[in-house]
Structures are given as C-alpha cells and as structure tokens.
Amino acid sequence: MSNSLRTAVASAIAVTALSALAGTAAAQGTDKLSIHGYLTQGYAISDSALIEGIPKEGTTDYRRAALLMRYATSDNDNFVLQIAHRRLGNSPSMQFEPDVKVDWAFYEHTFQKADTRLRVGKAPIPFGIYNETRYVGTQLPFYRAPYAMYHEGIYTSETVDGLTLMQPIFTGSAWAMEANGYAGSFSYLDFITTRVSPTAYAYVGQRERASSTLGGSLWLSTPIDGLRFGGGANRYTVQNAFFQPGKYSFDGWNGAVDAKFERVLLRSEYRRLMAHKLMDYRGWYMQGGVALTQKLSLNGQAERANYIVQPIRAVTAGYTSSLVRDDAAGISYAFTPSLLLKLEGHQTKDHNLESVLAPTAAPVKGKYFISSLSLVF
C-alpha cells in the first residue's frame, strides 16, 4: 500500500472514529465538549508544468482533513483545538508540511455586556470571506479558496499567534457591522527561483517568520438579506526573505463584496500587498454560482494577480510578472448537506509554477482538472 493511500485510509478512519465519539458524547449529555471535522479527498491532473502540486501524471495525494474540538468551561469561555492534515500533491512546499499539525489552539472569552470576543493563542486571522473556512470543502464553490487572494502552500498563513478581537456594532440595525482586530506574529513559506549558475536556475524554499503584525477588518451588512461589504488592512515585518536580505515591512489592504442569496452566489475580492521599493502585489477574483436544483450547482471563477519585484525591474525595463491568470468552471452535487462532489476545470496563463522558471520568462499556458469529495460532521 502506498504512503498516500495509507494516509487517506488513516484520515478516513480518524474521521469515522471521532464522529462516533462525538455522537457518544452527545448521547451521554456531555455539552461541554463538541467535536466537528471535515475531510476533502481530491484527484488532480495537469497538462503542463507543475502548478499547485498537480503533475501531468495526476495525483490522488490531494487532501484536506481536520478535527475541531471545542471545550466550554462556562457559557463565556471556550478552549479550541484544531488538528489538521493536508496534502498538495507534488508541491515542493510539502517538504515543510508535517503529516499532522496543530492548526488552531486558542482560548476564547466572550464579554457578555458588549458581546466582544477575545481570542488568545493560535487563531484564524479575520481576513476576507474565506480565511476561516478556506479548507472546508462544503463551504467552497471550488476545491480551494481563490489563489490570487488566499494563496496555498506558500506565501500565506491562515492564523496569527497572538490576540484577536471581534466586536459587533449596531446589531439591531439593518446596517449592522462587525469590527475585527489582531496582533502578533505568524510563519509562512517563502519560495523563489534563483540562478545557481550562468545557465541554470533552482527552485528553493524556506520558512519565514513575520513579526510585529497588526491588522483589522470591518464588515457592513445591508438591508438586502445576503449582501454585505467588507475591507481591511494589515502590516507586518519580515527579516531576510529570499528576494531582499535585511529587515523590512509589508503593508496591505483588501476589499470585498459578498452576495449570497437563495439560489445565486456572487463574490469578489481585491488585495494589494506592498514592501516599499521592493515588491508590489495586486490580486483579485470574481466568483459566481447558480443553484439549478436543490442539489446541483454551476460555478464560475476568474482570478488575476500581478506583482513587481523592483530589483528585477531595475534591470529589466517594464517587467511585471503575471503570477496568476486562472479561469475556472465547475459543477457541484450535494448528496446531502454534509457530502458534496465537485468537478472543475481550470485554464491558466501565468508564472504560478512550482518548478524552475526564470523570473523574466514568458507566462506558461496550461489546463488542469480537479475532482473532489467533501464531508463535514
């Protein structure tokens, strides 16, 4: 039995066992402990270079699974632990990914009078529409949250080690708001294609630590049920990343429109991230879906991201890298509300490759296909 198949079987057994455990706890009247989880198993194949871990020969080593345990010591106090397992095919980032890791680990207190929630520990960052659910397959129109906004494997973190605050505002109004803030640090993977000889390049990675992180977001509901607007900003400091040794700060902001109605889904987000005189990243996506029946949905998505690395541009006039140019269409079928099948096809023309490619090379065209089955409990 292959390693990937053994891991898939182990994940399925763990989910089944903990589902039984959760049912047993409920049957015994234990309301302090709740256990939930998800498992998404995918198959992916590409017709071009390695992209997001997908090889030409195809892979079943494409998976997300997690177990979320919440223990309530009182009505206002909770301890939350999430254990996760993720595989991204042949992606070089997998050399930094353990088979099982602590995904979330935080204490949460609710101040009842103000309805303020405080989280201390390793908690999801209040960022964008999908960050807290970016791996929950039944919550996503496609296998992953849009790469241009959320990335995957590299250049991203879904959590922050520190403090997170969530504050509802004007809760009785049709224009209710939610404000979020966070501070702390986080780690992410940094990869680069670097020249190792006059004629050869290598694709190498390292784990980087972002410190002095500060950020926040604001969501505004509207009188139209299902329509809301959001935005946020953040700042953090990095030391000795690949493209520029030394210490420097990133500044970013983002905006979102989220319209989720009974049979129609329309979403769009924009993100800009800058390191002064070094790098300028701009990404966005548009996403739409329509429920043809109670179980069958059609989905479409377009995403784009460009970035400019100033040290490269200084020696290559007009250089701008098309990091992401991905157009996708897919269908999803819900056997039950907790079991979802997705089939999707993507067409790309970009530099978003996990392989050796000169930074100034022409974008690579390609297509890839993903089928996935998602379960939540």
Notes on the structure:
This protein has 377 residues and is mostly beta strands. The protein is built from 3 helices and 16 strands. The protein has a 16-stranded antiparallel β-barrel with strand order 1-2-3-4-5-6-7-8-9-10-11-12-13-14-15-16. A hairpin with a 7-residue loop joins β6 and β7. The chain is globular.
Short account of what is shown:
With 377 residues, this protein is mainly beta. It has helices at 3-27, 147-150, 310-313, and strands at 33-46, 59-74, 77-88, 101-111, 116-124, 159-169, 177-197, 200-221, 227-241, 244-260, 264-275, 279-291, 296-309, 321-336, 339-350, 364-376.
Features:
single chain, disordered N terminus
Which helices and strands occur, and which strands form pairs?
Layout: H1 3-27, E1 33-46, E2 59-74, E3 77-88, E4 101-111, E5 116-124, H2 147-150, E6 159-169, E7 177-197, E8 200-221, E9 227-241, E10 244-260, E11 264-275, E12 279-291, E13 296-309, H3 310-313, E14 321-336, E15 339-350, E16 364-376
Antiparallel strand pairs: 1-2, 1-16, 2-3, 3-4, 4-5, 5-6, 6-7, 7-8, 8-9, 9-10, 10-11, 11-12, 12-13, 13-14, 14-15, 15-16
Q: Note the overall shape.
A: globular
Rg is: 21 Å
Order of helices and strands: HEEEEEHEEEEEEEEHEEE
Unreliable stretches:
1-22, 24-29
- N-C termini distance: 28 Å
What fraction, in percent, of the residue positions are helical?
under 10%
Instruction: Look at the helices and sheets and give the structural class.
Output: mainly beta
> Which strand order does the major sheet show?
1-2-3-4-5-6-7-8-9-10-11-12-13-14-15-16
Instruction: Compute the average pLDDT.
Output: 87
Number of helices: 3
Largest sheet: 16 strands, antiparallel, barrel
Q: What proportion strand?
A: over 45%
